[in-house]
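Researcher: Next entry in the queue.
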Amino acid sequence: MKSFAIGSMESETVTLTVLDYERPSVGSFYNDNWLLCEVLVRAGAFFGKFQANFLTSEIEDLWQGLSTLHRTLRGEYTFAPLEGQLVLRASCDHLGHIHLSGEAVDHVGTGHRLIFAFAFDQTYLVKSLHELSDVVHAFPVRA
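Model: Structure for this entry, 143 residues:
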C-alpha cells in the first residue's frame, strides 16, 4: 500500500492510496494494470472518501504531468483517467502558485459529485512528487 497527497494543508488535499493491483498478471495490458485505490478529498468543510480504479499508466502520467508543471512553473496539466472518478486540473501562475481544481465521483457513471478548487505554493509539490514517484515505482506498468 502506497499513497500520495496533493495540496498544502490537511483541509485542502487530495490523497490517493493504492491498495494493490486489481488482479494477478495474465499478460494483458488492461487486465494487468488496474489498481485498486482509495481516494480522499478534503476541501474546506467538505470531505469525501471512496474507492476507485486507475490504470498504472494513468498514475505514471500524473507523475510526469505534475513533474513538468513543477519544473517549468507554467502551463497546465489535466489528469482525466478512463473511468472519470477523479479529474484534476493543475496550473501554475507567474508567482509559482499551483491552482488545483477537480471533480470526484464516488461511483463510476452514476455517482455523487464533489467539485473543488484550491491553491498552494509550488514548493508543496516536492513532497507530492516524491510520494507519487514511490507509488509509480511500487506499482509499475506491467507489459
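Model: The mean pLDDT is 95.
Researcher: Noted, moving on.
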